[in-house]
Amino acid sequence: MNSFNWKRIVVKVGSALIAPNNNGCSSHYLLGIAQFIVKCRAQGIEVVLVSSGSVAAGAHLFKDDTVSVSVKKAMAAAGQTEMMATWDKLFDFPTAQILLTHADLRNRDRYVSVKKTLSTLLENDILPVVNENDTVTTDRLKVGDNDNLSAMVASASDADALIICSDVDGLYDKNPHEHDDAQLLSWVNEIDDDIYAMAGGATSAVGTGGMKTKVQAAEKATSDGISTFIVNGFTELTFNLLLQGKNPGTHFQPYETPMQEHQHWLTHTSKAQGEVVVEESFEAELKNNTEQLTSADLISVEGNFSVGDTILVRTTDGTKIAKAKSNYSSCLLSFLADQDDKDLPADFQNSTGPIISEKNIAILEDS
């Protein structure tokens, strides 16, 4: 057993498994997943559970035919307790609820706090159950789907593997619900445009994520050295095969050389709060480590951000060069960019430092 040599895994379960009929929680499909988690723990494998389903679990309690944003938030509030109670009944060990928004992950101090909480729970044999806090989140603060959230949690918990439960066996070369000749991809060594082209929209009427978000999650996780599986969560055979060290779905291979932790966080977890547009020549200078961003390279500033926020650095043609922590606010950078006398911003930076520092920048591979 445990021939994958996992020490810690993250299992992501979607709404279609939690509340398949939009009539509250059901343990019908969850029992096999719970047994898998129990067997993993018995083998010494630590488990973090990322569970969607609060809105779907609470929907049956509301009679309003018009589901507004406020009603969905209320559904999440009511359904979250039902969902946690359902999981609790399936385990004979303690669980802990962790509700997150993207603000908890994109802020470095709060992200480190989440890491410590997850680690402490696992050290005490408590199963963390993570979900997005749909009751309080807004468009600006939400991750949006628990596939990508599970990848962020996998990185935060230093997991060896991420297992994403779907309603199909894995990634196919075309939508298996629409094409009888669709072929399952058992292995994916590199996630490129062709792989994304194979990922269609949502196949479930209950969940918010489709195959594309699962591939996005796989890209986040594998770049951090985490093996990622997309599997069919509706069949018990899936979990029996995983326990035997066999691949029941699509296995995305991890990077041989994972990204450094801080650069991975900047690239895949922290969300840019604004943009700085720079001269095209800066791209080559940055990749050759010959220059840090100064006001001489700065053309314009977009969005509102504060000191310490993550920003996107791009050229005038839209090429995304890097994500970085800004040492200046958008207000001050806009002032510096607008100066006709370049001696003023140059003198200012000589005394206060560069706009972004080498230790707080992640060069984007797609640039």
Automatic annotation (TrEMBL):
UniProt catalytic activity: L-glutamate + ATP = L-glutamyl 5-phosphate + ADP
Which PROSITE patterns does the UniProt record give? GLUTAMATE_5_KINASE, PUA
Q: Please tell me one Gene Ontology term that the record gives under cellular component.
A: cytosol
* A GO biological-process term: L-proline biosynthetic process
Span of domain PUA: 274-330
Q: Is the Transferase keyword given for this protein?
A: yes
Q: Which domain of life does the protein's organism represent? A: Bacteria
Q: What is its EC number?
A: 2.7.2.11
Q: In which pathway does it act?
A: Amino-acid biosynthesis; L-proline biosynthesis; L-glutamate 5-semialdehyde from L-glutamate: step 1/2
Provide the alphabetized UniProt keywords.
Amino-acid biosynthesis, ATP-binding, Cytoplasm, Kinase, Nucleotide-binding, Proline biosynthesis, Transferase
Chief location: cytoplasm
The entry marks the following residues as binding ATP, namely K12, S166, D167, T208, G209, G210, M211, K212, T213, K214
Record-listed substrate binding positions: S52, D134, N146
- Top class in the EC scheme: transferase
Sample GO molecular function, one term: glutamate 5-kinase activity
Q: Which PANTHER family match?
A: GLUTAMATE 5-KINASE, ISOPENTENYL PHOSPHATE KINASE
Question: Which family does the record assign?
Answer: Belongs to the glutamate 5-kinase family.
Q: What does this protein do?
A: Catalyzes the transfer of a phosphate group to glutamate to form L-glutamate 5-phosphate.
Q: Which HAMAP family match?
A: ProB
- Protein name in UniProt: Glutamate 5-kinase
Task: List the source organism.
Answer: Alteromonas sediminis
